[in-house]
Amino acid sequence: MATVRHDPTAGTRFLDPTVLATIGNLELLARTVVEGFLHGLHRSPHLGLSMEFAEHRAYNPGDDIRRIDWRVFARTDRFYLKEFEAETHASVTLMLDISPSMGFTSGGVSKLDYARFLAASLAWFSGRQRDRIGLLTFDDRVREVIPPSTRHLMRILHALDRMGVGSGGCPGAPLAAMADRVRRRSVLVIISDFYDAPDAIIDGITRLRATGSDILAFHILDPAERDFPYDAAATFEDLESGERLPLVPEDLRGDYRSMLQEHQATLAKRMGAQGVDYALFATDQPLDHALFEYLSMRQAMVRVR
Amino acid sequence: MGFLVPAFFAGLAGLAIPIWIHLRHREQKGAIRFPSLMFLRRIPYREVRRQQLHHLPLFLIRAAVLILLALAFARPFLRRPVAAATLSGGSQEVVILLDRSYSMEYGGRWDRAVALAREALAGLDPADRATLILFDTEAAVPVRPGSPPRSVLPVLDTIRPGAKGTRFAPALKVAQDHLATSEMPRRTLTLISDFQRAAWPEIEEIALPSGTVFQPLSVGEASSPDRLIASVELRREGDGSDVIVGARLLARDSAVGSVRVSLTVNNRVLNTQSVTLQSGTPLLVTFPAVTVTGTVTRGMVRIESTDSLERNNVSYFSLRRENPLGIVLGGTPSTSAGDPDLFLNRALTIPGRPAVRLVESNANRLGRAELSGPDVVILHNAPLRGVAARTLEERVRAGAGLILIAGVNTPRDAWPASLRPAQLGDVIDRSTDRGGRMVSIDRTHPVFELFRGPETGDFSSARFFRYRNLLPDAEGRVLARFDDGRPALVERSVGKGTVLALASSLGNVWSDLPVQPAFLPYVHELVVYASGYHALPAAWGVGEVTRLAVGDSGQSVVVTAPAGRRLRRETGQDMIRFEEPGFYHVLEPGVGGRELAAYAANVDVEESNLTPLDPAELAIAVGGANSGAVPVATLATATEQEGKQRLWWYLIVAVAVLVVVETFVGNRLSGIVRDVPAG
User: Fold this and answer.
1) Mutant choice from A53, A56, A65 vs B, greatest count of B C-beta within 10 A
2) What is the mean pLDDT of residues B199-204?
3) B100 CB contacts (<8 Å, ≥6 apart)?
4) pTM for the predicted model, two decimal places
5) Which range of residues forms the domain containing residue B421?
6) CATH assignment at residue B181
């Protein structure tokens, strides 16, 4: 059983993935993450994308009279406007990679658990601002589809709660296949470890972009995948294919890291060229990093539109 | 680089055998489960301390032979985006879509586009058929479709970019229809554009006919610095005669720095300011108030600098003097319980557009003098009889608005049959069941159109504790109902005017609607609709159409375009279409005719967004997996390109040379081995 360290100075302790893993209920987890995150955000200078009430200001002729706070008028006999942050009522589809490689963990939470926490938090977050929210899971093919709706939040949380790893597969082909399931312009959030050739991934992304959707790609990695901290020679087993390879890690570490970095750089560059926002997260990072990234990307989309 | 038969690369697997034999492995411990060996697999395995690789040059030569053989059998070729027509025989139908939106004026885009079109036409055979489609937001075919290529070429010397935005869909639809009817064995669609993302806002149902080669040719640049006026905002002050002008300026890419921006009104420069633009950050420049005088006030905001796209450096607007709406509120006197008209009064006195001149009066004392002037009369919980009824009927038939609000002081015969939209019935008391709600609302009606979007006004939270049962007359139209199905709001047209009847009073006794956020805009919309007020925009977009709002519809006027051209207008035709940016002047007929109005037209600012679209994305969207349409240089042309290049032949020659070298080196090494003296 994991040990919970209570550190009163840690402002983001509720967002630490290891601590979150001790919360059994995914709905409670999502609510804890999002509300805690927004609570902190309101005190910060970074007002994010939400439908949160921000402030009052005096009414000026020409302002939208729907924004006048009529109750304040009753008390003060003056007209004030309620100012809100930007509102969207977008269709958001979470696309979650559940291939066996996502089940990997080097000690903390697995990538799949991290992805589940993240997806649940984003779903809760989107539900909170009345977005239509949907879920797609995939391994070598599309596994589960919950179409976007404002009423599907609980269904999605339930699906995430009982989710396990699927069978082996690369994300390129299922991403391309998913384009046929996107019926309307949406915000697509792809959460995956992107173990596939960049060409295949970009091909899938291009097909998704062709639906007119905005895409956010969250690349999830375990710290061990990033750092490759192994020393002793050993046989490595591929979680996707079961293939075994005898290796001397200390000889390969440099090459491995540079290839991984090149892979990330290629994905970031080519996705950027497609107008796709790409962000990399390690499972030891607090979830608020990912949420903040999500907010920033959504804000950028609103500005672009 | 492409390969016709990439399956032959499987032969390279044979290389693994000698490599594997050369490597020796240490004892392994338990297996480490790792997400993917994708990268590790690619790293050549080196067991440094024990690895011995003898005769490296020979090994490399033999490996090269194997690799080159596999390469040759895979039939490589160099991908070149050339028209298929140049590689294979047979006549073809070629459609060239040429973007002539105003963004094509940027830099040298237009010249490059025309050169590409000329090149594409010049490369065709006389037997081929060509169709040139010029497009912006619309598509036009300047020469008869399917003409010989030579007859299309001269048109390219006569065309220039227009002032409109870009939409791919109309042009692609025309091209699709034309190609679908073509009987030529081969079909090619060439799209020459700067490929702005805004030109393809969403997926359109376009699928090119099977076998069509889609050839997108981009003339856009990687970076496109530009300064532009993103919008002009006008805010009326006081009684509406003073207008504050604000302009949002934007710099894209590296077009940052100091610029001068000026406001010109009626051909006089009123104010000039120097501002510094940051890339991608809109900057609001506010000018001193402009006073609207006379019938026509023409304004223009201009960035006083030259850049690669001039059209979006200026924004035009026209202002008209607006008289405030005259409203008479006929209510009941205040009592010890308070003023029953308080909420209505306060809602109507909010300064806004249109400006309002409110007169509050006791409904029982309203006479001809009070009722002959206003645009809208509101009778709040008061009957309408005698002189007031007759005067109001005349006013309404002439175009005024009347709002009748039922309450406890309106008996069944309080509203005359010639004006009322509905007959008054009993008082319905819903105070025992937590009040009724207004649920069935026609949100397509102008009164409720403002509340169509989500979170723009929630009527369902208002509770109506008492209301009158309205029985609509034959001409009455129900716009909203309570949850028990009884009408809440009924409308009727009388002559040129409008009468609205509300079932529940707008004090805070019969309902709590007055304390709900929706109350204020609801009252505002009721008044504006009843008055027949229509706010004329300060500017229109190029390509838009509007009805002339000058005098009677039969009045004869002359309209001149910004360039001075006089527009031909048919008798009784009072519509105008804006084809270019600037001012369209409406004049009285005759020499030196008085100017009656001016209409401003601006280019679509969205067209200034030069963010590029990946042509491959468009190719996928219009090609689709099922249509058979293919992008340039995919499998349909790969065979032709490979056949023309024959790179495999050079590879085979290289293999032969390497085999000779291998024989020579092998013999040398064998000789060395043989020459080694025995023990």
Assistant:
1) A65
2) 75
3) B134, B135, B136, B159, B160, B161, B162
4) 0.54
5) 325-531
6) 3.40.50.410
